[in-house]
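Closing statement on the adenosine-5'-triphosphate sub-project.
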Amino acid sequence: MASHSQSRASLRSERYLTSAKPVGIVGVVVNRSSFRVKKVGRKRATTSGLRAIIDDGVADSGRVRVAVRLCPKNSEDLSHGSDFVDCIELQPELKMLKIRRNNWISESYRFDEIFAESSSQRHVYETAAKPVVESVLSGYNGTVMAYGQTGTGKTHTIGWLGKDDPSERGVMVRAMEDIFANTSTLNDTVSITYLQLYLETIQDLLEPEKNDLFISEDPKSGEILVRGAAIVEVRDIENFLELLQVGEANRHAANTKFNTESSRSHAILMVHVQRTSRGQEENRSSLVIRSSISSSSSSIPIVLKSKLLIVDLAGSERIDKSGSEGHMLEEAKFINLSLTSLGKCINALAENSLHIPTRDSKLTRLLQDSLGGTAKTSLIITIGASARHFSETSSTILFGQRAMKVVNTVKLKEEYDYEKLCRKLEKQIDHLTSEMERQQKLRKSDKENMERRLKQCEACLAETEKILVVKEKHHLENFGFQSLLADTTRMYEEKVAELVEQLQIEHSQRATLEDHLTSVQQQLSDNISSLKKQQKAMDELHLNLNEMSKKNEEAASVILLMKAGKDELLSEKELLCQDLKASQEKLLHEEMHRKSLEDEIIRLNQVLTKNTEVPKGIGNTIGPSGLEYTVNSSKHGKPRENIPGQRATIAKIFEEVGISNILNLLKSDDLDIQTHAVKVVANLAAEDVNQQRIVEEGGLDALLFLLDSSEDATIQRLSAGALANLAMNGMNQDLIISKGGARLLARMASRSDDPQALRMVAGAIANLCGNDRLHMLLKEDGGIKALLSMVRCMHSNVIAQVARGMANFAKCESRSINQGYWKGRSLLIEDDALNWMVANCTTFSDSTRHHIELALCHLAQNEDNALDVIKSGGVKELLRISQESSREDICKLAKKVLKSNPVFSAELERLKLNY
Ligand SMILES: Nc1ncnc2c1ncn2[C@@H]1O[C@H](COP(=O)(O)OP(=O)(O)OP(=O)(O)O)[C@@H](O)[C@H]1O
């Protein structure tokens, strides 16, 4: 890739190419008859493809090949058709043409190709130009040139763009198409330079400001260069066409007699093709330099550079005939000068002259390489058939004939990319240098190791020698010492034996002493420990003694105290005995008194019972207190005590017996006494004055206890009656509820079927209903539900109490609402009392009915109950009450209720009822 971009860069400027880049040029002379290029897509063309191209290429002899193309007659020719006959006769199959001077004289000429008027552009290109293009793709220089009289079709043949009709494309466009098709954008570059030679001045047609460009020759390669000319890289055919059009627009043209759009300049298109090959280029025997490069450089890219010149010469015509004047005359002179110079060069080349006058004109200079140089050249001469231009046609044909004699020496040009080679070699050198350094280091360390080991060996050797010398010396001395040593040893052994003996004696003595010492020490320590023990025992004895004497003292004082206490106790005992005796006497007295009281109570109860018995057929009424009073005489006409009389009797009992004694009797084990006591308490509770004392003395608790625990139905009924009486008082109501009285009453209501008992329970609950503060608690304890449930016994007295309770409840609730203490749907309705009221409004006795009516009116007063009242049919009932109730106040109340609430009026309207 790097080398590729390098190649591109090197093509941007010829100056750079020729002066700076270190390239090696390999000149190879080849002598091949023809070139064949494998046609592959430009993008697919590969390096190996290029190599194949090069290897397969076969060059021709190198002679300039000349083709003749006959131009179709133009309008002018046709208009002069009658005056002049054609002077040209073609024999394409023989590649010959005949030119007639007159009716008698004609000359025949053979050319490489003859193109008739009808020859297509494609045929002309493929026959005359394509071989040159193929050789260029193979790395050789090539030239395709058109020469001929003005208006004979040079530009048509060479430079026609064929924009409207692609079949009309000329050599330039077709050549570029082939080049693009056979090169790769990856490895190859194609660039162009487009020049015109006008009035002996070279102008860049792509950058027209570059005028009067200078021609030079590469001293090494002999290549002709135009300094400063733009070399524009071309990507594809479209890109080329654009550039060509730019160039055409800048080309100088004028209207001549012969051609209305005559090219007055020579146009030279230079196509630079650079192809890069990579990989193993081993078999290039031609590469002399290869042998001087090591085998490792075999992958160096080889760059093939070739150049294709496509030249559209200006028209060759006789000045007098062309009708040029003034500036155009100047033009014509210059054109003819350059063409004449071209002719001269060709003549010289054809005659193998030593001197070729290429420097006579810039045209010949530019074409130096194309004619007699290293390029493969194809010349297309264009002629007209009209005899009018016999002279020009004849000279053109002669020009072509001479050109056919010019022989070129085709050369292949390859370059090595030395920079890349250098880089690669430098890399190898670096690698080898580092490898060498590494080896040197290894060798150095090996050498050091060896030297160190050698030194060690030498030292070892010296040491060994020393040891050997010493050993030798010792060996000699050893003899003298041995006898002396034996004597001395003997003597020492004897002395040692003596000493050992002495030592043994001393040792045994010492052991004896040590044993003695040990036994003495042992004895001593035994004595000391026994002394210590004795001391300790003494100390303990002392302590015990002290404690005992202390305890003795304490015991003596306690005994004294006890004695005093005993005296005291004895006197106390005496006093207590006296008290006990007195108490026993008192107790006896009280027992007797109690007995007499009990007798009295029994007697009184009997009296009371007799008095309160209700003869059959006579209804009882329940007083506001719930206590039963006889209100009528007995059936037998026997006069009864009236209520004040009873009260007086009870008050008398109360005064005489005392409330606490009576309440004590409630706890009696005797059921009779208990029953009588409950009766008395119940009757006492009917009096407001007694109620407070009964409650204060624990009467309420005792009654609730009996209600809860007694299994006797009479006691339960009487207790309920007593509770009913106590429940008349507001304060008691609070206490009854707080002590669970409502729950007990509700339980009794659900368990009992005795109408008398239920009447007491209903009376008690009805009294509690009269306290609006307790409504919620009463409901929560099941009081309301219990009240309603008792209607099941269908006993009028019970129902009367139930109705009274409802009236009480509804009235109090209504009052609370009015006072703002309560809001919302009635608790009675929640427990389903309303439906019963509506259904039973007219069922019972007057007093019961009044209670129900009142209850209904009060419920209807509450707006929140209105819908329930309507739903239950209560409106109709209210209307009836307002109209039919036997109590005036209830009638009024019902009317008021109906009037006050518009929903009732609406309901009445709906029912079509009037009030
Ligand atoms: N083979 C051909 N077939 C059809 N038309 C042609 C052919 N040759 C030339 N012509 C027509 O003849 C006219 C002149 O041709 P052209 O401009 O190519 O001549 P020329 O030789 O380049 O002239 P000049 O030297 O003055 O530039 C053009 O209109 C061109 O189309």
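The first helix runs from residue 2 to 12. With this model delivered, the sub-project is considered complete and its resources will be redirected to Aim 3.
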